[in-house]
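Format is chain and fold; as here:
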Amino acid sequence: MKLIILTPVGKLYENEVNAVTVPGYCGQFQILKNHAPIISILKEGIIRIKDMENKTQEFFVKKGLLESSDNYIKILAEQ
């Protein structure tokens, strides 16, 4: 899957990933390959990314918006 995280100051992250866990408005959820299309509001919390080598990276987000379809995930986030 392709993941891109954008902030008001620019691109924070862009890469192929295996999994993304985000702080959804109604609770934490994870997106894996071939996930159904989704749009979600994000609340304050940690975005956890598992890359293609199964290494984990974490980013803090105050709030944001996630859109995912066709194995492409876009996150618009406030830092």
